[in-house]
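Thread: Newbie trying to understand structure tokens

Hi all, I'm a second-year student working on a class project, and my supervisor (Dr. K.) asked me to get a predicted structure for one chain before our next meeting. I've only ever worked with sequences, so writing a 3D structure as a token string is new to me. If someone could post the tokens and maybe explain what I'm looking at, I'd be very grateful. Here's the chain:
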Amino acid sequence: MGFLQSSHIENGFLSAQDSSVPTKETTTNLLIKEYFKKRHSSRVVLLLVVLLGTSMVIGDGILTPTMSDYTVAIACVVLVGLFALQHFGTHRVGFLFAPILLAWLLCLGGVGIYNIFHWNPGVINSLSPYYIYKFFQKAGKNGWRSLGGIFLCVTGAEAMFADLGHFSKLSLRIAFTVIVYPCLVLAYMGEAAYLSKHKDDLQSSFYKAVPEEIFWPVFLIATLATVVGSQAIISATFSLISQSRALGCFPRVKIVHTSNNIHGQIYIPEVNWLLMLLCLAVVSGFRDTAMIANAYGLAVVIVMFVTTLLMFLVISTVWNRNVLWAFLFVLVFGFVELCYFSACIANVDEGGWLSLVVSLLILTLMSTWHYGTSKKLAFELENKVSLDSLLTLGSNMGIARVPGICLVYSDVTSGAPPMFAHFVTNFPAFHQILIFVTLQSLMVPKVPECERFQIARIGPAEFSLFQCIVRYGYRDVRDSHDLETHLIENILRFLKCQGHSIEMAIREPTENGESGTRKVRFRINLEANNEVGEVMEAKEAGVAYMISKTSVRASGASSFVKKFAINIVYGFLRRNSRSPATALGIPPTSLIEVGMVYRV
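---
Reply by user tm_fold:
Sure, no problem. This is what the structure looks like when written as tokens:
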């Protein structure tokens, strides 16, 4: 329904949807999809809402590592060490994460039980909803304002469900209901029991509620759990940016896979060091965890509310459930989240503004990159050269063919990109084997290997022109070094399936025992075998790579806002992001860059 669906439709629908979900579309489902299809403004709003939630999660990657009770100096040292170790990956120490968190949760639950029975067993009565009513009756407006602080008791626990891509639903349900939820409730009840007898210890009640005999072991486990929690959100930020980049919503950055065996363990150097600098700036600038907590709480509650809004579309149009269930879901969860949001937004002047500013900057970056990229693609589609024009151009200009293979990379899925026509017009020669390659990201996590390459011939066989679309899911690993090998292998496989067929009549007994004849079609791959040999010879001669080096500029008649977005912001991002050639791993000695200016 959004701007990212075009490539999904053009290249066949690959679904990652659970087969147990109903596939029959309801009338309401179709009406909702039709609404988004007809109204461009609705698709703009949908994209901005999704990017808002995404930018808030990335903002969490800045705020979560700064949430500690250490002094500024110690916190800065821990942060530098944490980010400096990112390039090693987590696969060497990842096996320790679960035991650390399990020990931490058991410590919380155990200390909570001790405090309940030691200080005030009557605190168990707080499980009754009656005390919620009494609390707001007595506290009034101050009770509503306190929801911003109460919400911090929830933040962090919701991160478990971000792991649905790595663990099953059943494992998360068991972990949350059996361990996480009861331990957290016991911890807060125990702290409340302690505070009922020590009201002066409100600012540091957590550590003071820990018995002296076990204080240092608990402190050590808490420190390790803080590092694990920070590592989790940093890894999540890397993963989210990688997927956003694959969908054309984030500038090109270097992605390093730190594990050969475990998918998803990645490291992004530029993002890592930028996160570290921002974390250090937050810690050094605020010097107050209460203000950082206000910013953190506001970011999390906005992520939750955006997720709830998008779930309306998921329930009604993806799962094809009754729209009333979707509305009821949004009504119940949205009401609770809006209550917390209204309290958190009241703390904007006390640190909450930080998350809004950070997310606004990230939102602007992502939306501008997507806008500029879409305009660039639209220009290429409008100015692409048709196959007939390309073949006519070649015959009229007497283009020479040189030995070797040339891979022409572009975003055009049919015909030739405008930069190729620009090149041929000025240099009337190209390689013996010409392959137009388009790399596409689909809106599914993974594309099966058997469906990754789509190959077609352009024109007659004697021209040796091919079109290849390489399809990736947004969680697929792109190995640029193996792409050339796999691409040529698939071209050879494609050629071996081509050829001329002849019919032969053979005699064989029929069902009633009489002799009869039937026609059998045989495929003779004589010409295909010759083409296979030509491709192999061309490969031995060398492989060249052609790619555009474009400068995207707004047209003279564009508005000031568009000129600023395209010429200034998008131009700055393109100049400072990784070049397509570097991202594809193309050797400089084999690279042909064709310069063009796109007026969009």
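A couple of things are worth pointing out once you decode it. Strands lie at 256-257, 266-267, 400-409, 429-442, 453-458, 465-473, 500-509, 515-524, 543-553, 591-599. Residues 6-13, 500-507, 520-524 have pLDDT under 50 and may be disordered. Feel free to ask follow-ups in this thread.
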